[in-house]
Every structure is written in structure tokens, then in C-alpha cells.
Design brief:
alpha/beta, seven-stranded parallel sheet, two-stranded parallel sheet, 10 helices, globular, binds nicotinamide-adenine-dinucleotide
């Protein structure tokens, strides 16, 4: 299969890249390396250091590579930045995705996009939340991803595309930036490995659906083979885990008993999240298979290896 991965030098994208390389596919990566790491892209893979906001460059690459599938993971990923810089968020996540859609259509490429389940639904919704729930996102990031999904689904209806958006829970695993401001598992693992005190924003009872990165990668690979009609699927465990429980699991993996400091809850945050992935089970044959404890142990081991 000929594929392009946008964001292939990033956390999830590079895990997907590894699996596709193992599968012997012809792969190229589009990544502006704003947070990605060039060393994650092997020499056998063509790296186009390009911004997805550059419509002309994206069109040229897609026209020359002629992919069958574009795994679209490049994005502005920070909820907090989306609150402070909503225009930048929309430019990257909405217009960047539209650039890909316009480039994909002439070559008949399918786009499998990383959307968000965690930031999509907001509070006061059924748990676990199905895709049929009307989104009530608490941050521009959720709106920009929802909007990008809508353009992909519209392309399916209007032009016979076969694009799919995967609404991911909070992905975690090795390579997530432990110094970043997103990815609480990575941040806790990094701090505890350095013997430092983590900060919990709010009271720590807020829950999210944490899904291990290898399980997420399997969902992308299954979506690439999918021939059904669904265009939006949740990818999560169905279970919310609190920030306090996460810290306990990281302490268990590290053999420590470090307690957290508390700070006020942040703008754009929502209280609870858990995704109903029944549709992904039926349509893609996908289930998460890695428990939080197993995933955190693997993440901590690789960080400290
Ligand atoms: N990590 C999660 O928990 C999570 C949850 C839901 C959805 N997602 C989505 O999954 C995708 C991957 O997230 P991640 O956690 O691996 O993030 P990441 O920051 O590690 O990866 C994003 C990659 O995209 C690249 N990139 C960013 N802006 C770009 C641009 N304008 N042009 C070209 N490349 C650009 C970065 O350099 C990086 O390599 C994103 O679309 C994100 O919104 C992630």
C-alpha cells in the first residue's frame, strides 16, 4: 500500500509509522517538525518537512506520491493553546485538513484522521459516550476537530470519498513528550522518574478515557482496511480513569509513593470522559487490549530504560 502519514514524526504517528514500515508499505511523511522528532523517521521513508497549512506544497506532494491512504495526524494538539490562540488552532486543524482533502480527491486517496473523543463531547453527557451524542466541546480544539470531521464526511457524501475520523481517547505510551503540557501520563512518568512532585489541576477526580498507543495504532490500521459506511468512530476503553488513579498507577510502576501538589483547574477543561467504542468493535473489529496498569508500566519502563 502507498501511504502518507502527516505528523509521522510525532508521538502516535511514529508508532503508526513503525508498524507500517514492518508491513513493507511505501510510506512518506509530511511533518513540519514543530513537535515531531526527525530521528523517528527511518532513512527508507521520505520525510517532507512541510506545513499542512501550505496548500500548494501539500497538493504537490500528494500528486507525486499518489497514496492510497493518508493517515492524517498532524495537528495543533493542545487544548490550552486552542483557548489562547483559537485562530492558529483553526488554521491548522480545519484549513490544514481541507488542504489534504482537496489534494486527496484527484488521486482517490482515503484520509484516516486522528480526531478527538476526549475533547469532543463536554460534560453532562451519557458515560460512556456514543458518537451519536451531539458534541458540546469546552475548547476551540474540540470545535476545530469536529469541523475537520464534518469536511471529511461531506467529501464522502459530495464526492464519493471514503474518509474516516477516529475520535481518540487520551492516548498514552512511550515517546509522548514528558516535558510537554499535554499527556498527563507522560508528564507524571517524567516527573516521578526525576523524583519531582507532580501538579494536579483541580481536585484530581476528573476522569478521561486513557487508551494505550499500540491499541490506537491498531485502530488506524483497521480503519485503512474498512469498507463500510461509518465515517466517525470512537476509539477508547469505555472507562474513565481519574488523575489520582493515574498517579497511583505511575507510583506503582516506579515503586514510589510521591504525592501531588494541587493547582486550580484550567480553562477549557471538562470534568468526565469515557468513550463508547461499540461502533468500532462492530465495524472495525477493534477493542482496546492493554490495561491502564500494563500501559503505564510499559511507558515508565521505556522512559527509564
Ligand atoms: N495524544 C492524544 O492523546 C490524542 C488524543 C486525541 C487526538 N489526538 C490527535 O492525534 C494526532 C497526533 O497527536 P500526538 O499526540 O501524536 O501529537 P504530536 O505533537 O506528538 O504529533 C503531531 C505531529 O504533527 C506535526 N505537526 C504539527 N503541526 C503541523 C503542521 N501544521 N504541519 C505539519 N506537521 C505538523 C508535529 O511536528 C508532530 O510531529 C493529532 O491530530 C491529535 O490531535 C491525540
Amino acid at each position: 500500500m502507498r501511504v502518507i502519514i502527516t505528523g509521522g514524526a510525532g508521538f502516535i504517528g511514529s508508532h503508526l509509522l513503525d508498524r507500517l514500515v514492518e508491513g513493507g508499505h511505501r510510506i512518506s511523511v509530511i511533518d513540519n517538525l514543530s513537535s515531531g522528532d526527525k530521528s523517528r523517521v527511518p532513512d527508507t521513508v521520505t520525510l517532507h518537512q512541510v506545513d499542512i497549512r501550505d496548500a500548494g506544497a501539500v497538493a504537490d506532494i500528494v500528486a507525486s506520491e499518489r497514496p492510497e491512504v493518508i493517515f492524517h495526524l498532524a495537528a495543533q494538539i493542545s487544548v490550552r493553546h486552542s483557548v489562547s490562540e483559537p485562530l492558529m488552532d483553526a488554521h491548522t486543524n480545519v484549513l490544514g485538513t481541507m488542504n489534504l482533502i482537496e489534494a486527496a480527491r484527484p488521486v482517490g486517496a482515503r484520509i484516516i484522521m486522528a480526531s478527538t473523543g476526549g475533547a469532543m463531547y463536554g460534560d453532562g453527557v451519557p458515560m460512556p459516550t456514543p458518537e451519536t451524542q451531539i458534541p458540546k466541546t469546552q475548547a476551540p480544539y474540540g470545535i476545530s476537530k469536529y469541523c475537520a470531521e464534518q469536511y471529511l464526511s461531506l467529501d464522502n457524501r459530495l464526492h464519493g470519498g471514503a474518509h474516516v475520523s477516529l475520535r481518540l481517547g487520551n492516548a498514552f505510551g512511550p515517546r509522548q513528550d514528558p516535558h510537554g503540557e499535554a499527556g498527563v501520563v507522560a508528564i507524571f512518568c517524567g516527573l516521578i522518574a526525576r523524583g519531582q512532585t507532580p501538579t494536579i489541576f483541580g481536585d484530581g477526580t476528573q476522569t478521561r478515557d486513557y487508551v494505550y498507543v499500540a491499541d490506537v495504532v491498531r485502530a488506524f490500521l483497521a480503519a485503512a482496511q474498512y469498507t463500510g459506511n461509518e465515517s466517525v468512530l470512537n476509539i477508547g476503553t469505555g472507562r474513565g480513569t481519574s488523575v489520582r488513579e493515574l498517579l497511583e498507577a505511575v507510583n506503582a510502576a516506579a515503586g514510589t509513593a510521591i504525592t501531588a501538589e494541587h493547582a486550580p483547574a484550567r480553562a477549557g477543561e471538562w470534568k468526565h470522559g469515557a468513550l463508547d467504542s461499540g461502533l468500532a468493535a462492530r465495524e472495525l473489529g477493534w477493542h482496546s487490549s492493554t490495561s491502564i496498569a500494563e500501559g503505564i508500566a510499559l511507558t515508565y519502563q521505556q522512559l527509564t530504560a
